[in-house]
Specification:
alpha/beta; Rossmann fold; seven-stranded parallel β-sheet; globular; SDR39U1; Epimerase_deHydtase; TIGR01777 family protein; DUF1731
Length: 297
Amino acid sequence: MNILMTGGTGFVGTHLVKELVARGDTVYILTRQERTDSEKIHYLTWLNGQQPDLTGISIDVCINLAGAAIADKRWTEGRKQLILESRETATEALVSIIHDLQPKPKLLINASAIGFYPTSQTTFFLDTEEHEAADNFLAETVISWEKAARASGIRTVFTRFGLILGTDGGSLPLLTKQFAYLAGGPLGDGNQWYSWIHIDDVVRALLFIMETDALEGAVNITAPHPVQQKKFAELLGQAMRRPAKIATPAAMIRLVLGERALLLLEGQRVYPQKLLNQNFEFTFPKIEDALANLIEE
């Protein structure tokens, strides 16, 4: 296959490109910076006033992973605008490319997030059901992001990613740092749900979506066994052989992180019903196995 991708040099993109190339696909990565091509990876400059030249290239699948990082900086009004506009701009530009491609790609995979769902201790958020969106900045971003992708005119999947765990990116390096200083434990009351997924299963799920025509619309990319934060902390402490007894008050987290604290203090219990309905098998369905694998690395 020929794959056209944005965000191909980020955390998820890097892992995905590696697997695509390993199975023989050719990847065309849209980037703002000039990079050196390899046999199976080609970099195309875009969003600098020019459209990439795809003359003579038949694209099978488009994957949109572009967007400014959400968790790494305080959410000033300027930062929030960048988070939102970076996603809207990249998605709208990619949709414009799709409209011009002949023949049309068969699929657009557009990154999204479970931040669409409201915080709840009791509701199980299935992607086979309709749910009201949360009333916060994250949900507003997801709604705008998915709306822009709907204009593609081809089969579109919104991959609502949960808490992605990996050793070279995602949330785990920050969470393990807390335990390295012997300060691990519950955040706030610790009852908030963590709907997590191992990076290897993220990549496998994306490849599965590419091969499964029945999948369309919102698809939850989370493991089938979410856990509450205090349980997550307990198991992470066990994996690292560190105590998990020091609770961090919610007020302190909000003081330090501001509005961004909702990433740690609020959560949703999300279930990947669509993937399971299509018989997708997780390599790491339970958090114990995922942490054992990642901490051992």
